[in-house]
């Protein structure tokens, strides 16, 4: 992990497994969307070697459909299943001075994420991790709790 300067929390504060509690996006007009439902399930895992894994699933999950396992289902069913899940892995660096963690995405369910560097402003208070991003006239909020 790269570290700039201490800000009251150590760069290792983020190490651990974090359970997703809130995953919401707010548009400029105030409209809130929850792409993975009211109660998404998933985890962000940051290990001490600087590797991460992120997986989030919509609830309720999409229902199984004919041909799903064989790869012969209809396109709309696959689209719905694809949009109900996000997963990626890679490495991460922490910049305490800026209050950011950067996800260096090595592989992703979404091809457009692979090879990108996702900067995430974050804050940890006790066992709660808050990630808040301002992006393209939107405000993205992710709340997670440490798994013990």
Low-confidence stretches: 1-8
Give the topology string: H per helix, E per strand: EEEEHEEEEE
Could you report the average pLDDT, rounded to the nearest whole number? 91
Shape: globular
Strand order of the largest sheet: 1-3-4-5-6-7-8-9
Q: How many separate helices?
A: 1
**Helicity level:** under 10%
Which band does the percent of strand residues land in?
Answer: over 45%
CA-CA gap between termini: 23 Å
Radius of gyration in whole Å, from Cα?
17 Å
User: Mind describing the biggest β-sheet?
Assistant: 8 strands, antiparallel, barrel
> In total, how many beta strands?
9
Structural class: mainly beta
Compact summary:
With 148 residues, the protein is mainly β. Helix content is 6%, strand content 49%.
Structure overview:
The chain has one helix spanning 75-83; strands at residues 16-27, 32-33, 41-46, 51-57, 85-95, 100-108, 117-125, 128-135, 138-146. The chain has 148 residues and is mainly beta. Strands 1-3-4-5-6-7-8-9 form an eight-stranded antiparallel beta barrel.
């Amino acid at each position: 992990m790269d570290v700039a300067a201490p800000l009251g929390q150590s760069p290792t504060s983020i190490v651990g497994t974090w359970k997703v509690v809130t995953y919401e996006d707010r548009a400029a007009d105030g409209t809130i969307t929850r792409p993975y439902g009211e109660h998404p399930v998933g985890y962000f895992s940051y290990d001490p070697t600087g590797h991460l894994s992120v997986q989030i699933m919509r609830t309720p999950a999409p229902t199984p459909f004919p041909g799903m396992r064989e790869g012969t289902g209809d396109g709309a069913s696959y689209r719905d299943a694809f949009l109900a899940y996000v997963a990626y892995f890679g490495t991460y660096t922490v910049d305490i001075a800026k209050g950011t963690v950067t996800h260096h995405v090595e592989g992703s369910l979404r091809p457009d994420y692979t090879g990108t560097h996702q900067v995430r402003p974050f804050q940890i208070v006790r066992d709660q991790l808050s990630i808040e991003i301002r992006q393209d006239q939107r405000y993205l909020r992710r709340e997670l709790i440490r798994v013990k």
